[in-house]
Each structure stands twice: as structure tokens, then as C-alpha cells.
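Comment thread on ticket #2218

A.B. wrote:
> Attaching the input chain for the structure job we discussed in standup.
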Amino acid sequence: MRNIRSGIALILLLFIFSCQSTTSRLTVVDRQANVIWQAKDGGEMNWQQANRYCQELNLDGKNDWRLPDMEELEGAFKLKSKFVPPISESYWSSKIISKRSKKAGYVKFDFGVTGFRKMSYPGFVRCVINE
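C.D. wrote:
> Ran it. Output below, let me know if you need it in another format.
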């Protein structure tokens, strides 16, 4: 009976940990959103540079990285303590208001504020890939 209880406890622990986010040295896996994040950001740059950076990124054997959408960034705000180092900057999203306005979306990770700003302004980039 004792072995059965130990086995059940182990199975429960494995299930709990498999449902949560995991972190490697290079990536952060968000199982709830089914995405993998770049653990260390790519630095500060304008939107065009950030978009190109993600498209050209080859990390952890994967090469189809992209800028995250606003919802993905808002979800990453909840995981911010898992990133290297923990983050508090404004990160670019793939969301563009219109090509004419030349404004793109961002999420500021200190308070989770979202907004739009000129694509020529500096912002940080953290790429994402579907799991």
C-alpha cells in the first residue's frame, strides 16, 4: 500500500510540473500558451530592427522565431521572473496600428502597461516561437 501511495504522489508531482512553465538556459517554455520564449532578450532597438532580429534568430536549434503578438506579451508578463535577468522594460509586439501611422504595440513589463508608439523609437525585443 505504501508503494502505491508513493507512486501516486510521484505521478501527481510530475503532472503538476508538466503543466507549468519550464526554463532552460536559452528558452522559457510557457505550456499554457504553447509558446517558447527567448530567455535573454536581444537588446534595445527600433521596431524594424526587432522584427528582423527575430526573423533571423537561430536559437536552441530553432530558426522560425518571430515578434510576439500583444496577447503573448501580456501572458509573458506573468512569467517575467523566469527570464534572464528578470525584466522590467518595454517589449515590442508584432501589432501595427497601420502602416500610415508607423506605430506598433508594446508591453511595459514593470506594470504590464500596453500601448502603441512610433516604430522608430527604441524598445526591447524578446522573440517567441510556437511550441
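A.B. wrote:
> Thanks. Noting for the ticket: The domain at 22-130 is CATH 3.10.100.10 (Mannose-Binding Protein A; Chain A).
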